[in-house]
Amino acid sequence: MLNDGEFLRYSRQLLLEDIGPEGQMRLKQSTVLIVGLGGLGSPVALYLAAAGVGTILLADDDTLHLTNLQRQILFRTQDLRRGKAELAKEQLQALNPQLNYQVLTKRLTEDNLEDILQQTDLVLDCCDNMATRHAVNAACIKHRVTLVSGSAVSFSGQLLVLNPPFTHGCYACLYPDRTEPSRNCRTAGVLGPMVGAVGSLQALEAIKILSGMPSALDGKLQLFDGKKHQWTSLQLRRDPACAVCGGQHANIG
Fold it and tell me: Would the keyword Magnesium turn up in this protein's UniProt record (predicted)?
């Protein structure tokens, strides 16, 4: 049950017919894994903590660098050279001390994701490298856990939602090549509000799904052009030859 403090804290959320007390209890009883606490993970973590998601696993093996502060809004200048996951926990506890935060400072692999995903209801992929993205995708497919994936570089953003039973394919279908792309934030730059926009929408979809609402984005790749302020929606189609989900090189159209 929700206590009086929770009813007051989440009162504006509880007024929504699609959430209400039942949806809020679902959030309270949920466990999410946030992979990466940078530009995407910062708004994701803040909004999920503010919304009352009961257990939040904070995964990042990196330390804070001065170049991060332009877009990673969880952190402050005095936090430089400290671990991002522990810093995130401190900030989120200050925002909402009623929740359970767990810090994961090892780089996630298919091996250590085995135990983690057995207790997780939803994963938010906010990381910045292909090896981790593919490991997270494979683990979500194996354990039938919903995946909300986001990315951004320069003025471009991507958002992808994959729900079990993954009838539309998976991340490996869409991006079978595990080679790190040459165009990334370090080489091409990124505008802070771009990762903020994509991360906020990742949080929106996560809150909807966890509270019992359907996601209209399931199996769709959303592409955002920040210069034109234009969204393009592409539907994934599963190809049955994928080594991860049974579909290789998912078609989009």
Answer: no
CATH code of the domain in which 144 resides = 3.40.50.720
pLDDT band, very low/low/confident/very high, at 248 (cuts 50, 70, 90): very low
Show which residues are catalytic. Answer: 185
Residue found by looking up tokens 């919903």 in the block: 146
> 44-79: per-residue pLDDT in tens?
999 999 999 999 999 999 999 999 999 999 999 999
Q: How many distinct structural domains can be found in the chain?
A: 1
Closest residue by Cα to residue 224 from 204, 203, 195, 250: 195
